[in-house]
Structure formats: C-alpha cells, structure tokens
Amino acid sequence: MSKVLSLSGVSAFYGQIQALKSVDIDVNEGEIVTLIGANGAGKSTLMMTICGNPRARTGSIIYRGEDITNLPMHEIARRQIAQSPEGRRIFPRMSVEENLMMGSQVVKFADYDQQLGLMLELFPRLKERFGQRAGTMSGGEQQMLAIARALMSKPKLLMLDEPSLGLAPLIVKQIFSAIRKLNQEMGLTVLLVEQNAFQALRLAHRGYVLVNGAITMQGPGAELLARPEIRAAYLEGGH
Amino acid sequence: MAARLNANIKDAGSAGLLAFAIFAPFLGLRLHGTTNGLILGYRPELLAIAVALTIAARFLVLTYQARRVHAGRAAWRADKIARSGKFVAPILLICAALMPLIPGIANFYIDLGVLVMTYVMLGWGLNIVVGLAGLLDLGYVAFYAVGAYAFALMAQDFHLGFWECLPLAGIAAAVWGMILGFPVLRLRGDYLAIVTLAFGEIIRLVITNWVSLTGGPNGIYDIPHPSFFGLTFNLEGGPGTFSGFFGLDPDPKQQTTYLYYIIFALALLTNWVTLRLRKLPLGRAWEALREDEIACRSLGINLRNTKLSAFAIGAMFAGFAGCFFATRQAFISPDSFTFIESATVLAIVVLGGVGSQLGVALAALVMIGVPALLQDLSIYRMLFFGIALVVMMVIRPRGFVSTRTPSIALGKRRAISGEMVSEGHG
C-alpha cells in the first residue's frame, strides 16, 4: 500500500502555545483513518496544519511523494486534497448548484458534469434542493452539501472535520454510510476527525488518539474500540 | 390583541416623551433679537405638533410590524419583486435613454440626469467591491479622485483629450485599487472599513498638500470638455463646432446631452461587466468570498488574487467616473472628494440592496435626484429626505431589492429573498 499522506514530527503553535507536539501520522491509499480525541486535543489543528494554516513549525508533511509543508493553503487544496472544514461552511446565500460549482472551479482536471452526477446520486437530497439557497437547508443537508462540494474536485484524499457536529443520530448514520460507500466503491482515501469516537472507530480501518497535541495510541479501529482506556475516556455514557 | 394594543400605546407614549425631551429646546424655545438684547420666546404649538407626529408615527410603525408575516409572504414578495424587476428595469432603461430627447426639456433636468447617472455608475462600481466581494470599502471616493486628477493632470501637462485619458484614468485608479488592496488583504469587516476610510482621507490630503503638482486647494481648472468626433461645443457656433457642422443653433443643451450619453454608456458598461463577471468563475469566487473566506481557501481559491481583482475592477470604474466628473465640471479641487462622497455612494448601495443592480440604480435616483428636485422646500429639504430614508429602512431593512438571483440555474430561476435568512449570516 502506498502512502497518500505522511506526517513526521509535525508540531504547530498558536503564538506561544504549542498545539501539536511532534505528531506522526500515515494515511495509506484506500484507507479510512480517524483521529479522535477530547475537546481541545488538537484534532482540528492537525487537520488545519495539513491544509497549511497554521503552518507546521517543525517536521514535514508529505502528500503523495511531494513535500507540501510550506505550500500556501490554496496550492495545497489544488493538489486534490479535499477539505471539509469544521462547521460545514457552505456558502449560505448561494444556491446548492453554485456551491457545488465552487467546489470544482479551481481544479482544472475535474470533470464537473460527471462528478455532479455522482454527488447527486450519493446525496439524492441535494438533487431536490438543487436551486435552493444553501443557507435555508437543514443542518444534515448542509453537511451533505459540504461533503459533496469537497468531493467535486475529484480528490485523492478527503479530509473531514467533525461531519457529525450538531446532527441527529439518524443523519449521522446516513453521512457515515455515505463515507463508507465512497471509500468502498470509489476507493477514496479518507482522513476523518471526529468527536463521536464510537461511530468513527467502527467506520475506520485505523485510528489515532490525540491527547494534548500528541498521539498517545494508534491501531486498527476495532482494536482501539476494545481497549478499556479508550472505552473509559471517550465512549462511556453513550454511543 | 388588546394586550398588544396596550403595549403599542405605551411604546408610542414613551417615544413621545423622548421626542419631547429632544424637541423642547430647539422647537419649543426661540430667541428673538431685539434692540434690548435677546428675549426668550416659546412655541408650544410647534412642539406639540412634533411630539404628536412622533407618537403617531411610532404607533403606526408598531402596528404595521405586527401585521408582517414572515417566510411565506417574504417568498411571495421576493417573487413579485423579481417579476416586476423584469419590467421595471427595461422601462427605466428606456426612460433613461430617451430622457434628454424629450422636446422642450430644461437643461437643468438633463444636467441633473448626468449627476444621477454618475452616482448610478459609482454605485454599480462600488457594488462590485461591497456587494459581490463583500469587502466594506469606505474610501471609494479615493479612486474617483485618482481618476479625476489623472485626467486633469494629463490634460493640463500633456494636452491630452478626454477620450485618450479615459482608459488611462481607469488604469491609474485600478493600480491604486491594488495598492490599497495589498495592505488590507488580511483585514475583514470593521477593520477593513477603517483602513479604507483612512486611505480615502490620505489621498485627499495628499492632493490638498502637494501644491506643486495638483494645485492644492485651488484645484485644477480649464479641463477640456470631451469632443464629438473632433467637434467641440461652444455657444458661438462656427466651423469645427458641433452646432456649426450640423447646422444647428448653438444651445448649451447639446453639450449636456452629449455628456449625458457618455455617462449613460459608461454606466451601462459598468453594469454589463458586472453582470458578465457574476457568471464567470471570478465573479462566483467573489460571491463565495463574501460568504465564507475559510471555505474559499479550503476549495483552493487564491484569496489574494480574488480580493485584489475585486478592488482593482471596482476602482477602475470609479476612475472612469472620476475622469468623467473632471471633464464635466471643467474644474476639480479636493473639496469634491471628501468622505461624504464615499458615504453617499455606500448609502446608495446599501439602500438599493447590496448586490442588486436595479436597486442601486433606484437608490441613486432617490438619493441624488430627490434632494435636487425638492429644492423648493428649501430648508426642510434635508428633513424630508432624512425622514424618507428612515421610513425606507424600516419598511425594507435590506434595501429596495433584497433578492439575489442565482447566477446559474437549471430550469426556472428562483429569486431568493433576503428576508428569509438572518441578518449578517446570510
């Protein structure tokens, strides 16, 4: 298996505060890798660092053999790394269609029509809402749009930051099954940052646990799920 | 219902008290100058009228607001506005195109039309920056000034005419737009507004104080008027002039009409470019930028280029308008480029409905045309104007035309009412 993304010794700072401490992570082709951890552990920071903001102060980020550590954000995004940032961040006053167009417009090799067809098949709700203003949709629909928009660039790697945030369990299930489908049927590599550790670990091939900016545990999803310390820290009190 | 009525009456009553406190000193009291010095007089009837009007107005506003039903009505209204827009815009366009040709129309009205059209163009230009890209620019007049001075200086020092200078003035303003754009790339919202405001003032102060180049507060005069394919306009007539060539009686209206059509064409150009850009990736990127910067970056949009292009293109149209302003006035001085001009243009954009081309045109007509037409009301002119603006913003808080039509749609386009989404967050 070839490595899609490989971080070694990455640390990042917000001013004086160290948010990431020498993080090593590998994401292989065709894998779903999840990153779990408590609030403030640095999950989102890690994802943002891969995207180039904040920059990694030490270490290197290799994407498909290329060092992207010091590239500007938009250049990283143009290398078929799709990011769905935390909190959905769709364009509320633009229509669903315009949102999807924004997803592919800077990536020259994307085939808009074909990709659009795939997305509307994956998320039929978006088809119903196609001409509607995105800000008037429900949270779940907005999350679907955020994922679909990220996928419009035909990415090799999809990074999702908390897609389950603020959604009803049933909708979370739908979103997660869509991610699984993308992975199994299209061979998409996914890096998933999640609070919902139970769901995320069940979905993922492998997982990393982030505590205070450092990786403390890693392993296959099922194995992590079985560990008593994981159960105690992240899973007690409900699935 | 009764409880609401009660609350409304109470609210109107307290508004009346407030009005009393405000109006008592300057409506209720009056100083008479006599030979023995000043005598204090009273005008209770005027004060009573002001307070009564305030109470009545407040009561009506509250009653009206209570009757407003949201979602469904808003959608219905959006649809209605969008549909009436289809008729209103072409009718306005035809009226604007034919206005100077009305037989017997006074030169004053054509001249007023020139003024209104200048602001329509400025409004449309600023709409690119504020309406599409969402960059709040309080120093837009700076680019207007750059365009005006670029032409005035080239005319004075190199004896170039209006038509040669028009593109140069636009380019000069666009360059200054980028120069402003660079330092403010990382600023947003209020901070951006403050820096652009300062930029506008800096340009004006430089023009005022660089006396050797710009003539300082004395300004630049004898700026040439535009020629009509080499023909000039003057009141004597004769060979080489417009009236002489066409065998007409010289009339100041000829020149005003010509100026009117120049600014009309420039404004239409601004509008056409904006409408075209909205359908291109660049325009869509501007709109996305207005909605969410972080999402834009994660989609691979180069924020620097996108923002700079918005500043530059917006500034370019201000430069054209400034060039036109200089040629129309034949005299420019820093007094024409104060902050109030920026504020007026921004008010036109906001009043018209941010992002709406038709709304901006209507707002320019109201903001510039109405005060000029109300001159008969003399000192009460601004009072009525102010009241009209307040009423406007109460009735339509998001401007005349607060809908946004998607730049692309399969099948039927559905306008989306601004009232359906919360303030600020879209």
- End-to-end separation of chain B in angstroms reads 33 Å
- Binned, the helix content of chain A reads 25-40%
Low-confidence stretches of chain B: 419-426
The strand order across the widest sheet of chain B is: 1-2
How would you classify the helix and strand content of chain A by structural class?
alpha/beta
β-strand number of chain B = 6
Helical fraction of chain B equals 55-70%
Envelope shape of chain A: globular
Give the ordered list of helices and strands of chain A.
EEEHEEHEHHHHEHEHEEHH
The largest beta-sheet of chain A arranges its strands as 6-7-8-3-9-10
From the structure provided, what is the oligomeric state, counting identical versus distinct chains? Answer: heterodimer
How many β-strands of chain A, per DSSP? 10
Low-pLDDT segments, ≥5 res of chain A:
none
Main sheet characteristics of chain B: 2 strands, antiparallel
Structure notes:
The complex is a heterodimer of chains A (239) and B (426). With 239 residues, chain A is α/β, with parallel strands linked by helices. Chain A has ten helices and ten strands. In chain A, 49% of the residues are buried. With 426 residues, chain B is mainly alpha-helical. Chain B folds into two domains: 2-66, no CATH class; 76-420, no CATH class. Helices cover 68% and strands 5% of the residues of chain B. Chain B has helices at 2-28, 44-67, 71-98, 107-132, 141-158, 162-181, 189-209, 211-214, 242-246, 252-279, 281-291, 293-298, 303-329, 339-352, 357-373, 381-395, and strands spanning 29-34, 37-42, 220-221, 331-332, 403-404, 416-417. In chain B, the strands form three sheets. A two-stranded antiparallel sheet of chain B has the order 1-2. In chain B, strand 1 (29-34) and strand 2 (37-42) form a beta hairpin. In chain B, helix 5 (141-158) crosses helix 6. Mean pLDDT of chain B is 85; it is low at 419-426. The chains are: A alpha/beta (239), B mainly alpha (426). Chain A binds chain B through residues 51, 53, 72-75, 77-78, 83-85, 89-95, 97-98, 101-103, 105-107, 130-133, 135-136, 149-150, 153, and chain B through 281, 284-285, 287-288, 290-292, 294-303, 404, 406-414, 416, 420-421, 425-426.
